[in-house]
Design brief:
five-stranded mixed β-sheet; 10 strands; Nucleotidyltransferase, domain 5; 11 helices; single chain
């Protein structure tokens, strides 16, 4: 079964063709980073306009690279939330129009579910054993979905079977990275820049707070206070000429919170696997620390390859396949839902 999938929830225009939920026949992503860099963050109106400009070409490229035409497509899928509503509408309407024109099923997919399903995709002939263990991804497991707009801990019991265990009460982790980078004047997007700079810094140089680690807070997160702690440190001590130690300490505090809550959730749910998903899962410190803690706890870890961590349509196609296998489709009047929950 071949599914044409489209993803436009934020500032990436993406289309992919996925076979049987796992095999990537094509995965095309057109990034808008350069357009938003001048503003230090994403401008929603600019994002939606850029989607309109390139979406037709991106879809055509995805079909061409997969060596298929519309007659060989079995279903069409698109993200319908959460995300920027203007951006969502572009991809959603394109997918609906194609599905209607070729008389094939349409499936609307939750963006967060898509990130989880990135763990089921194989970037080559076989799964990456160093990331997923010999047994691969098996249910049940706990997944940390962490990005610029989301920080959630989700218990995954099966395809389409999710329990939201905890989420951020304020800033998402990736949002905190971007805001700290903007405050320090080191560029956008903040996550990759901080990750790179932190490699030359001492993560123990500044003891920033690890918020809400007490078990009484459950599995919820808070990163606004950590961001404010960085601002207050600079206001009190001045901006250091070398920022590597500062950003390394900030990054370590954020990673410690994410890893500790994820491992605690896995222990409480008595699962053998923890998974990462979302743009911040590309962070090298997070990947390394989660692997180390999981190994210490006797847990397997699934981490998608870097190109499947950030927003892409391949993950949407994977999620749609498993929905369609269960007989689930969506109506053509499905609306975009900016604050959609999983």
């Amino acid at each position: 079964m071949k599914i044409l999938a489209i993803e436009t929830s934020c500032d990436e225009t993406a289309a992919a063709v996925i076979k049987d939920g796992k095999e990537i026949l094509s995965n095309v992503v057109s990034s808008q980073v350069e357009f938003h860099r001048n503003y230090g963050g994403i401008v929603p109106e600019v994002a939606s306009r850029k989607h309109i400009e390139v979406i037709s070409a991106v879809i055509k490229q995805a079909l061409d690279e997969a060596k298929v035409n519309y007659k060989k497509i079995d279903a069409v899928a698109a993200t319908y939330g959460p995300g920027l509503v203007g951006s969502l509408i572009v991809g959603l309407n394109a997918a609906k129009a194609i599905a209607y024109a070729i008389n094939k099923p349409f499936i609307g997919i939750n963006h967060i579910e898509g990130h989880i399903c990135a763990n089921f995709l194989s970037p080559g002939p076989s799964p990456i054993k160093s990331e997923r263990g010999i047994e691969g991804v098996r249910f049940p497991f706990v997944c940390l979905v962490v990005s610029g707009g989301h920080t959630s801990l989700i218990s995954v019991k099966g395809h389409g079977e999710y329990e939201l265990m905890g989420r951020t009460r304020d800033d998402a982790a990736g949002e905190a990275f971007d805001k700290v980078a903007r405050f320090l004047g080191i560029g956008y997007p903040g996550g990759p820049i901080i990750d790179k700079m932190a490699r030359d810094g001492d993560p123990k140089s500044i003891d920033f707070p690890r918020a809400m680690l007490d078990e009484s807070f459950g599995y919820d997160f808070s990163f606004s206070g950590l961001k404010t702690a960085v601002v207050n440190y600079v206001k009190k001590n001045g901006k250091p000429s070398e920022l590597n130690d500062l950003v390394a300490s900030f990054q370590q505090a954020a990673v410690d919170i994410l890893v500790e809550k994820t491992i605690r959730a896995a222990r409480d749910r008595k699962v053998k696997l923890v998974a990462l998903a979302g743009g911040v899962s590309a962070n090298s410190r997070l990947r390394e620390d989660l692997r180390a803690r999981a190994e210490k706890e006797g847990l397997n870890v699934s981490i998608p390859p870097l190109f499947l961590c950030t927003d892409n349509a391949a993950m949407i196609g994977s999620a749609a396949y498993y929905r369609l296998k269960k007989g689930e489709t969506s109506p053509l009047d499905l609306p975009a839902v900016s604050a959609l929950r999983i």
